[in-house]
Specification:
Layout lengths: L11 H17 L4 H11 L8 H13 L3 E9 L2 E8 L1 H34 L8 H21 L10
Antiparallel strand pairs: 1-2
């Protein structure tokens, strides 16, 4: 991704988790491990459940890299919860990754459209047509929401 990342070699899931943690911090104002876990479970309909240990390890690495910083502590059900917020560097990393991801999603969607159109021509390859159809519907709804929100945003150029 944009900055040197010690998690880079550990696979795509950790890279995606880095992005989701940074995004969660931006969207919610601050983040913590179990909050990220709940968000991932909800967004993936329970299909992806990273361990809490992995989440906190990635948070720790993001803090070390200066992308997150501690934003307070509180006691909750007998445990101490540490909250983290995005730094300026974390925001820049998040923007870079979001742009990168959006381009990959666009390319991937074009490829998947061609792939599934080809697969549907030969019924031997279709195991459960409901799975890609639900996924495509979810993607369409997300894209429509993105367009509704983003089309109203005035883009500011960063001063040079």
């Amino acid at each position: 991704m944009g900055s040197k990342a010690s998690t880079r070699g550990r696979g795509r899931q950790v890279g995606l988790l880095r992005f989701l943690i940074l995004a969660h911090a931006l969207i919610r104002g601050k983040t913590y491990g179990y909050g990220v876990l709940r968000e991932v479970l909800q967004l993936s309909d329970g299909a992806w459940k990273p361990s809490v240990g992995t989440i906190y390890k990635v948070i720790s690495e993001l803090v070390e890299e200066g992308l997150l910083r501690e934003a307070g502590k509180e006691r909750y059900r007998g445990r101490q919860v540490i909250y983290y917020e995005l730094t300026e560097a974390g925001f820049e990393e998040l923007r870079w990754v979001a742009d990168w991801l959006l381009l990959r999603i666009s390319t991937g969607m074009r490829f998947l459209t061609l792939l599934y159109a080809s697969l549907l021509k030969d019924k031997r390859w279709v195991k459960d047509p409901a799975v890609p159809l639900k996924a495509f519907r979810d993607i369409r709804e997300s894209a429509e929401e993105f367009l509704r929100q983003y089309s109203n945003v005035k883009v500011r150029k960063k001063p040079t």
